[in-house]
């Protein structure tokens, strides 16, 4: 079994497929490395492939009408992107940039569409993932339109905690928090607001920070306060 096959076994939309099918997917796809800050996809490009993150981290963003970057989400190992343009045949809806050195597995459009036809379980898993992303987008829209700055920052922290946090005894630890400017772009606020809000959270005994590591000390209480 190749290293690509082993990796694909842990990708949610492929996880329930037989090993022979995973091996077939590994054969039709290709691997490509991107250095930190390299563009992977650009908004309005034609969509011709699905991308799965083997290792590394990327940000998905759009540029607002006044030229500011708005980060929609940050994706990590085993996450995928590029599916919308593949499914509807339209251009890309966002930019994707490598936040660190990353390696991606790429499946071309025709191969992926055939995969959906041949293996309906992949289509079902894809629909489930897209539904969850829509729910997350709804929560973020509500946060950005209805909540104050503290609520916006808390919503972004909860999103990151749910995506990559590790929970133990009610404490969620985020091992490698995005840079404060990236957090600000996710929350629709400023880097100074992020810093000030973290300070307030720490004074309230809600979080601890240590370098790029952040702990939410009582995640259930945090969600009750800011969800």
Structural notes for this entry:
By secondary structure, the chain is α+β, with helices and mostly antiparallel strands. The chain has two domains: 3-141, Jelly Rolls, CATH 2.60.120.10; 147-226, Winged helix-like DNA-binding domain superfamily/Winged helix DNA-binding domain (Arc Repressor Mutant, subunit A), CATH 1.10.10. It has nine helices and twelve strands. The protein has helices spanning 3-8, 19-28, 83-88, 109-118, 120-146, 149-164, 180-187, 191-203, 219-226; strands at 30-34, 39-41, 49-55, 58-63, 69-75, 80-81, 95-98, 102-108, 166-168, 171-174, 207-210, 213-216. The strands form three sheets. The chain has a four-stranded antiparallel sheet with strand order 1-8-3-6. The chain has a four-stranded antiparallel sheet with strand order 2-7-4-5. The chain has a four-stranded antiparallel sheet with strand order 9-10-12-11. Helix 4 (109-118) crosses helix 5, helix 5 runs antiparallel to helix 6 and helix 7 crosses helix 8. The relative contact order is 0.13. The mean pLDDT is 89.
């Amino acid at each position: 079994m190749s290293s690509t096959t082993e990796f694909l076994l842990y990708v949610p939309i492929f996880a329930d497929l037989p090993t022979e099918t995973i091996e077939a997917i590994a054969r039709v796809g290709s691997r490509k490395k991107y250095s930190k800050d390299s563009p992977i996809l650009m908004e309005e490009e034609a969509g011709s492939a699905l991308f799965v993150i083997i290792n590394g981290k990327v940000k998905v963003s759009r540029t607002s009408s006044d030229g500011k970057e708005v980060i929609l989400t940050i994706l990590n190992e085993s996450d995928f992107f590029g599916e919308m343009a593949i499914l509807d045949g339209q251009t890309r809806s966002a930019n994707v940039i490598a936040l660190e050195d990353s390696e991606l597995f790429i499946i071309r459009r025709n191969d992926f569409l055939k995969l959906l036809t041949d293996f309906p379980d992949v289509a079902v898993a894809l629909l489930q993932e897209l539904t969850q992303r829509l729910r997350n987008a709804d929560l973020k829209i509500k946060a950005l339109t209805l909540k104050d700055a503290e609520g916006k920052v808390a919503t972004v922290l909860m999103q990151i905690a749910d995506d990559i946090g590790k929970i133990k005894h009610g404490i969620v630890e985020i091992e490698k928090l995005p840079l404060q400017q990236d957090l600000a772009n996710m929350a629709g606020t400023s880097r100074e607001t992020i810093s000030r809000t973290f300070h307030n959270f720490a004074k309230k005994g809600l979080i601890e920070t240590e370098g790029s590591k952040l702990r939410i000390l009582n995640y259930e209480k945090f969600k009750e306060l800011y969800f």
